[in-house]
# Entry
Amino acid sequence: MNNALTQENIKKLREELEYRMTTKRAEIAREKQEAAAHGDRSENAEYKEACRNYRENDNRIQHLLTMISTATVIDDKNADESVLGINSKARIRFIEDEEEAVVTLVTTMDIDPKNMYISIESDLGKALTGKRAGDIVEVNAPMEKYTVEILEIQS
# Structure
């Protein structure tokens, strides 16, 4: 997995992990116990739902543990504001179709394609990271290659 995450991202993951391992597990156990008291478990929809919730919570716990243990911690403070890095915002132009967009480079936890929050681990994010205003970069996406010009880096 090895996601590049900030200390703040790791903190959020740990908070969610703590909640799921304590509060959420206890809530689900209580629901499961109450549903089991209603009788035949093979025909008990509430019991089956509680079991499904337990499995989903457990799967999320395992996912969080994996993300935390395999994360590469990166600094979210960009020393050189003239170079694109984590949390940098840039106005770019897609050369082939003359479209402009403002993108913000973020970690995989903070992506939001609708608002152009692009992961530094995405094809576009990798191409932009470390570049400056005026640079032209080629993006090697799985289905196509395209070219982007960095028009300006915004603060």
Observations:
- Residues 7-36 form the longest helix (30 residues).
- The beta strands are 4-5, 72-73, 89-94, 99-106, 117-119, 136-140, 145-154.
